[in-house]
Structure formats: structure tokens, C-alpha cells
Amino acid sequence: MELWNYRPDVYDRNQSLDLVGYHVQATDGKIGSIDEATYEVGESYVIVDTGPWIFGKKVMLPGSVITRIDPQARNVHVSRTKEEIKNAPEFDEGAFKEPAYRQRLGEYYGRFPNTF
């Protein structure tokens, strides 16, 4: 499994589940809600609006950091702490679809245990 793919035991590509609007739970609490989500193989990620938690900052999380989806509660759980997410490279709205930006972000998230 790659960093930019959803875990097969968490997200089934054959279902039409849209994660936009879901609340995001880090390992140590809520961090915000999903503004955008992609589902392409090798390019799956979510953009999270952190609201006032880190001053309205948005963050991009690779699909593989999602560990559980609860459709009834509209929650997505990720395998990162608030601090790890807060310290991630700054979200760049103009470059987040570029391979170089995803590579830099992937290097950051890929260094933590339990990525895959």
C-alpha cells in the first residue's frame, strides 16, 4: 500500500461514500472537518479545515493516514496526533496538486510509524 491510497480495509472504492463534511479525529482529539477529498488510486487525500484550532489553517492528509470511517457519526479517524498535523508542511492552495508538493508532504507523513 502507498501513502497516497486509502487503506483497503478502511475505504472501499466501489462504494460512493463522500467524505466532505466529515469531522476529523486525530489520535488525541478533533482537528476539524473535511473540505475536499479525492479518491483516485495513488492520489487520494483529504483537505481538512482546522477552524480555530490552528487559526483557520487548512491541512492536507494522505489517504493512508485514515484508519477508520464512521458514516453514522460522520467521523474520519487518522493515525496522527494534533501536534504532528500542526507541524506538517504548510498547505499550499496553489501547489497542492503538484507532484513536488505531494512528495514533500509524503516525506513528512511517511516518517511516522504506522503509516501503512
TrEMBL record:
This is PRC-barrel domain containing protein. Gene3D superfamilies: Photosynthetic Reaction Center, subunit H, domain 2. The lineage of its organism: Bacteria, Bacillati, Actinomycetota, Actinomycetes, Streptosporangiales. It comes from the Bacteria.
